[in-house]
């Protein structure tokens, strides 16, 4: 009698930007005119959906990346860097003549960061090339808001197929968030993103508006203040406390939160457990400046 083959880990499709992150560690971010020396420098892959994909893989899932890069000096090496992390890059689109997004990230001695982002050029907006049939093998879809047309198509396809979807509701144009939130199951905002989506109202009211527009779950991450969230079935706001850590680099902590949350939903964790799982992942990323693996996260969950 032979053993049955082990089930594959759940697959999360991650759609959005892939960015070349140039990260400089500095004493402080000074106002110009100034000339300063960086204590450290690192070049690596970044972008909300890309960081989330790496988190999915490191935490034990599988990730398939959908996005676009140029055929410039940044596009190929970035794709190779994500592939080296175990992210499936077979459906990445290399656009002839396009320019890949680039960011300069300044991280001060307290771990806080300032980001200067160039969003690329000539990458095209047409989403018709997206291999939407690949969603049949996925257990969750995660989108960031940087490519509206692609996110719309993918979210619609996921909803038609009954695949749970997650939106990284980062700071964006109000019109973009208002187009995407009604299409998504789990709208997870940053504080600035929620303010863009629902300006001039309290966070809890902004989350209620997200649910009223079509989301099943709405949440806002607030750093050390924890995560506020509610559901369509229970609109009473709940709080998931942040894990107390000493931050050394907050860059990408929100992206990792979203990737971990999407994986938790793919694993069919309940929403409260998924929020705590994601909070632990984001805390470890802020503490260590590196995307965590599963064992340290599980240890933090047990001890926190």
Number of domains: 1
**Overall CATH class:** Alpha Beta
Strand content: 15-25%
- The helix content is 25-40%
What is the CATH T-level topology?
Answer: UDP-N-acetylmuramoyl-L-alanine:D-glutamate ligase
Describe the structure in your own words.
- This protein is globular.
- The protein is built from nine helices and 14 strands.
- The model has no long low-confidence stretch (mean pLDDT 94).
- It has one domain: Ribokinase (UDP-N-acetylmuramoyl-L-alanine:D-glutamate ligase), CATH 3.40.1190.
- The relative contact order is 0.14.
- It is an alpha/beta fold and 304 residues long.
- Strands 4-1-9-10-11-12-13-14 form an eight-stranded mixed β-sheet, with helices on both faces. It has a four-stranded mixed β-sheet with strand order 3-2-7-8. Strands 5-6 form a two-stranded parallel ribbon.
- Strand 9, helix 3 and strand 10 form a beta-alpha-beta unit.
Topology:
Layout: E1 11-15, E2 19-25, E3 40-46, H1 48-58, E4 62-66, E5 68-70, H2 75-84, E6 93-95, E7 102-107, E8 113-118, E9 140-143, H3 148-161, E10 165-169, H4 174-180, E11 186-190, H5 191-197, H6 203-213, E12 217-221, E13 227-231, E14 238-240, H7 253-266, H8 271-288, H9 294-303
Parallel strand pairs: 1-4, 1-9, 2-7, 5-6, 9-10, 10-11, 11-12
Antiparallel strand pairs: 2-3, 7-8, 12-13, 13-14
Helix pairs in contact: 1-7, 5-6, 7-8, 8-9
Summarize this entry quickly.
The chain is built from nine helices and 14 strands. The protein has 304 residues and is an alpha/beta fold.
């Amino acid at each position: 009698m032979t053993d049955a083959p082990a089930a594959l880990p759940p697959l999360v499709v991650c759609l959005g930007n892939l960015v070349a992150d140039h990260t400089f560690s500095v004493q402080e971010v000074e106002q110009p005119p100034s000339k300063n020396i960086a204590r450290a420098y690192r070049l690596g892959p970044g972008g909300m959906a890309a960081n989330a994909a790496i988190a999915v893989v490191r935490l034990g899932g599988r990730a398939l990346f959908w996005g676009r890069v140029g055929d410039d000096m940044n596009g190929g090496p970035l794709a190779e860097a994500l592939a080296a992390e175990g992210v499936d890059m077979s459906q990445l689109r290399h656009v002839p003549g396009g320019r890949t997004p680039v960011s300069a990230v300044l991280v001060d001695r307290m771990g806080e960061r300032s980001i200067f982002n160039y969003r690329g050029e000539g990458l095209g907006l047409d989403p018709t090339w997206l291999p939407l049939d690949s969603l049949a093998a996925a257990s969750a879809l995660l989108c960031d808001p940087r490519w509206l047309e692609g996110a719309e198509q993918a979210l619609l396809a996921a909803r038609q197929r009954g695949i749970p979807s997650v939106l990284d509701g980062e700071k964006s144009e109000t019109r973009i968030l208002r187009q995407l939130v009604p299409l998504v199951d789990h709208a997870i905002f940053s504080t600035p993103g929620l303010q863009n989506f629902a300006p001039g109202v309290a966070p809890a009211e902004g989350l209620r508006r997200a649910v009223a527009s079509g989301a099943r779950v709405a949440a806002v991450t607030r750093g050390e203040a924890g995560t506020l969230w509610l559901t369509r079935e229970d609109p009473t706001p709940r709080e998931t406390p942040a894990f107390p850590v000493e931050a050394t680099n907050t860059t990408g902590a929100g992206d990792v939160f979203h990737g971990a949350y999407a994986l938790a939903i793919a694993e069919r964790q309940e929403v409260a457990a998924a929020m705590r799982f994601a909070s632990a992942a984001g805390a470890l990323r802020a503490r260590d400046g590196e995307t965590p693996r599963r064992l340290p996260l599980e240890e933090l969950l047990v001890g926190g």
